Amino acid sequence: MRTLARRVGRVAPVPAVAAGLIAVLVGVTSSAAIVFTAAEAAGASSREIASWMLALGVGMAVTCVGLSLRYRAPVVTAWSTPGAALLAVGLDGVTMAQAVGAFLFSAALITLSGVTGWFERVMDRVPVPLAAGLLAGVLLQFGIGLFTSMEGDFAVVAAMFAAYLLSRRWLPRYAVILALVAGVAAAAALGTLDLGEVTPALAAPVFVAPEFSWQVLVSVGVPLFVVTMASQNLPGVAVLRGDGYRVPISPVIGWTGVTNMVLAPFGCFGMNLAAITAAICTGPQAHPDPNRRYLAGVWAGVFYLCVGVFGATVASLLAALPPTLILAIAGIGLLGTIGGSLASALGDERSREAAVVTFLATASGFTLLGVGSAFWGLVAGVLTLVVTTSRRGARDGTPTGTPAGTAGDDRSRGGPDRTGDTDRAREA
């Protein structure tokens, strides 16, 4: 009996299991509503939404377990929360087949970046302040939605916001979860919560053949790639490096891309290194021995698989929640990301104007030539950066045509250490 207990303790130490479970709970409760909104924007049926959850759960399970065991490090992956927010905006009017084509295109770019080692070079070409401005512009309507939803259901949303603020003071790690609990309790008390249709059910894969539209690839696929790499993979690398895990990044990025490509026809829109929940599994709370913390990554994968398998239940539960509650929890879950994005976008004075242009153009939601505002916001920001830095360079002797925030400018290129600090600040 003691021998069995020791073996169980080695495979499933309590701190590692708890860390994996908390990471999954935080990740799912803070952003599942955004994934649900993105799927609805593409016109997904309830079966297709369940398939999305299944594909994402299986993808994260395979990569968390496989990569953690392969490298003996807590490699935690996640779906791209900023990517889901972008899709919730960009997939309006797009067919499911076209959306899958964009998922495949983005995943192929991620795979190529990992396999060829282009990751660092590609990201050097996209100044971090501009990528942050792009992300902030995409997320703006979710932040505003937190407060506009109060007009429709003040009691529920106000209870959620109050719970969030109090939790940020005393239980910051569980602030989003407790806000959701408060919202559900308030909705139940007011009789706006209908759980009668929620029944435990297993998700089934739904295959959607991809359709490639150049407008959708440019307006959705390219921004999805940029946001995932800049806002998720970069800080994900920083978390691993910050806790002393020298995992080879290019193969890890490549495997997330390959897994994404295989599962994209079933709804896996974007996978990446976890940027917000990873620190739960890489720090001392996951295990006192750093060499044993990889088990937290393994158990996170196990719990993600459970979420995916019961994706139909998750989808029906989200459908039963009042729309204002969904909108409010999405806004609350993204407050930290919006704040971090704005801080990163405006931190360097030399690229601040270009970042503001990117932010405003992206947030405007305008469409040109069938291509959405996320792409044009990035184009406008790059154009502004090139023109303004060239003008300044002519005055102060800086080489013209060298944008602030690219290689050689440590303050604005958003290296792993600075990005990782931002990510940790969000979790605090």
Describe the structure.
There is one protein chain. Helix content is 72%, strand content 1%. It has 428 residues and is mainly alpha-helical. It has one domain. Helix 3 crosses helix 14, helix 7 crosses helix 8 and helix 16 runs antiparallel to helix 19. Keywords: Membrane, Transmembrane, Transmembrane helix. InterPro entries: Benzoate_Transporter (IPR004711).
Rg (CA only): 21 Å
Which class do the helix and strand fractions yield?
mainly alpha
What's the total number of strands? 2
In whole angstroms, how far apart are the ends?
41 Å
The fraction of residues in strands falls at under 5%
Series of secondary-structure elements, N-terminal to C-terminal:
HHHEHHHHHHHHEHHHHHHHH
**Main sheet: which strands, in order across?**
1-2
Keywords: Membrane, Transmembrane, Transmembrane helix
Pfam family, one: BenE
InterPro entries: Benzoate_Transporter
Organism: Nocardiopsis codii
